[in-house]
Amino acid sequence: MSMITIDINSGARKLTVQGGGSLLETLRTHKVFIPSACGGQGICGYCKVKVLEGAGSPLPVEEPHLDDAERAEGIRLSCQVKVRNNLKIRIPAKLLPVKEYACRCERIKNLTCDIKELRLRLPEGKDMNFIPGQYVQFRAPRYNGSPGEVSRAYSIASDPADAEAIELIIRRVPGGICTTYVFEHFKEGDEVLINGPYGEFRLSGTSAPMVFIAGGSGIAPIKCILHHVVNTENTRKGIFFFGVRALKDLFMSEEMRQFEKAISGFKFVPALAQPEDGDDWNGAVGRVTDVVAEYLAKQPDAAEYEGYLCGSPGMIDAAVKVLADAGIAEDRIYYDKFS
Ligand SMILES: Cc1cc2nc3c(=O)[nH]c(=O)nc-3n(C[C@H](O)[C@H](O)[C@H](O)COP(=O)(O)OP(=O)(O)OC[C@H]3O[C@@H](n4cnc5c(N)ncnc54)[C@H](O)[C@@H]3O)c2cc1C
Questions:
Q1: Final residue of a domain: which of 75, 91, 107?
Q2: Separation of 280 CA from ligand 1 center, angstroms?
Q3: pLDDT tens per residue, range 7-41
Q4: Same domain, 245 and 183
Q5: Is the pLDDT of residue 241 over 70?
Q6: Is 204 inside any structural domain?
Q7: In angstroms, how far apart are the furthest CA atoms of the chain?
Q8: Helices and strands: H and E segment counts in the chain
Q9: Which of 135, 138, 154 to probe ligand 1 with, by most ligand atoms within 8 A of CB?
Q10: pTM of the predicted structure, to 2 decimals
Q11: In what order do the strands lie in the sheet with 165-171?
Q12: Interval between CA 11 and ligand 1 midpoint (Å)
């Protein structure tokens, strides 16, 4: 296949590339990183770019991800566009500075039987400069039994003031390609490529009270945001509802108690959905969304809150409904679905 030109944002970058691959992968090879959660399978719909010239019509697999306005504008899933002709594309300008970092794994900590915390040391002198709440993409290389290299999104959990490393909190998905790599192959001392930062999930600039809701590894970006609240001496009132199954699944309680001490007006409320026999527990019990609903029903200023939610799509959908039922407007509810 002959060489092909990709013009990005009217000449802001011009690449000369080998044709034949997908646009997503070709851009990545040339260090232009477009977020993608599903690793190029056309499932997540994250890797949208505007193609002004050089690609045909959207493929059937893209259709569910595009609305009429996007189709009219030439938006495509970059994982489904084959690089065959010279292309003119437009991507958000904020993606151009996204970089790849070769990190060394400094520490792996088991937080529960199926959640690990990874501390990844950035290359000397390379600060990622992320906004608290954002995520990185972790590249799991091919391993015995995997279909090939994949990239997956993981929210940054570490203190933004710690410029030397990025910490991630990863829950094992049974049979998952990337998490099987993390749990069965990845070791302290190993090198891994991450790229980022990405995402719009972040603290707003208002002074509204905040209700944080997370399940399991969804605590990651909220922990990062709480560090930021401490670092910036932000005095907004906040409450964090953290849902897990049983006591053995609860982690980071000590860190959250430290945040309670450091941030006046901040409260941490862990909730066990299904406590086990013998769990020594006198805290909240039930689905985290029910615990939130009960709390908001007692708050005269419930509608003033902003919601910050992270976790599985099912939990987020239920939490959005609870917040909306409490009178919180949709544009005050921010979330990252871990799908
Ligand atoms: C913006 C964003 C931030 C994220 N941050 C985090 C984070 O901080 N910590 C974290 O643990 N995860 C996070 N995720 C989820 C993560 O990107 C992966 O989807 C997840 O780790 C599974 O990857 P995998 O390769 O192991 O599984 P895959 O091989 O992709 O999936 C295997 C099977 O499991 C299903 N599946 C995928 N994800 C889940 C899930 N979460 N629960 C149940 N079934 C699933 C798939 O549909 C598929 O059938 C985030 C996702 C997004 C979009």
A1: 91
A2: 31
A3: 999 999 999 999 999 999 999 999 999 988 777 88
A4: no
A5: yes
A6: no
A7: 68
A8: 7, 17
A9: 154
A10: 0.91
A11: 150-155, 135-140, 191-198, 99-112, 115-121, 165-171
A12: 35
Based on the fold, state whether residues 103 and 87 are members of the same structural domain: no
Q: How far is CA 39 from CA 24, 148, 162, 239, 256, in A?
A: 9, 10, 29, 35, 33
Q: How confident is the model at residue 150 (pLDDT cuts 50, 70, 90)?
A: confident
| Tens-digit pLDDT profile for residues 171-207 | 999 999 999 999 999 999 999 999 999 999 999 999 9
What is the domain-level CATH number for residue 50?
3.10.20.30
| DSSP code of residue 78 | T
- Of 69, 91, 113, which marks where a domain is finished? 91
Which amino acid, residue 25?
E
The whole-angstrom separation of Cα 143 and Cα 219 is: 28
Strand partners, 120: 105, 166
The number of residues making up the chain comes to: 339
Residues 230 and 281 in one domain: yes
Number of domains in the chain: 3
